[in-house]
């Protein structure tokens, strides 16, 4: 099962504060543990919301763009991991090991699988999804060459 573990932002991350050398060393060691265990699929830190934007759709499906920063840091994300583990409990155990320090917070959410969508996932939609994922994998591979 894939899980998204995201690190909640705080005042420091929203102010653009970068990790210290010690924090980077600890986070790198944690990421290496995830990789060595074969569970890490992706992960990165995120720039503060002042560099971001929100696109909100009204009742007529009209998009409105709001530039950051956004006021509620506790509702924002500062970084993430995508992991592939056998259970929610295993995802929690990995999150418990993260070197975030006092006040740090990680939210864990399961990533949907095809089975979750039932009959709404028609063969046509399934084929289109597979084509898109293959194209994205090729693009990523080309970027790493």
From TrEMBL:
Coiled-coil boundaries: none
Domain YCII-related, first and last residues per copy: 1-112
Membership in a protein family: Belongs to the YciI family.
SUPFAM superfamilies: Dimeric alpha+beta barrel
The name this protein goes by in its record: YCII-related domain-containing protein
Source domain of life: Bacteria
Pfam families reported for this sequence: YCII
């Amino acid at each position: 099962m894939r899980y998204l573990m995201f690190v909640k932002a705080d005042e420091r991350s929203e102010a653009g504060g970068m990790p210290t050398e010690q924090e980077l060393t600890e986070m790198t060691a944690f990421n290496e543990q995830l990789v060595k265990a074969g569970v890490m699929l992706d992960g990165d830190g995120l720039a503060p919301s002042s560099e971001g934007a929100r696109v909100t759709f009204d009742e007529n499906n009209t998009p409105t763009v709001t530039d950051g920063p956004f006021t509620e840091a506790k509702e924002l994300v500062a970084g993430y991991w995508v992991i592939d583990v056998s259970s929610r409990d295993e995802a929690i155990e990995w999150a418990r090991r993260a070197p975030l320090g006092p006040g740090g917070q990680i939210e864990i959410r399961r990533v949907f699988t095809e089975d979750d969508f039932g009959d709404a996932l028609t063969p046509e939609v399934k084929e289109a999804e597979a084509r898109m994922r293959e194209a994205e994998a090729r693009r990523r591979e080309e970027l790493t060459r």
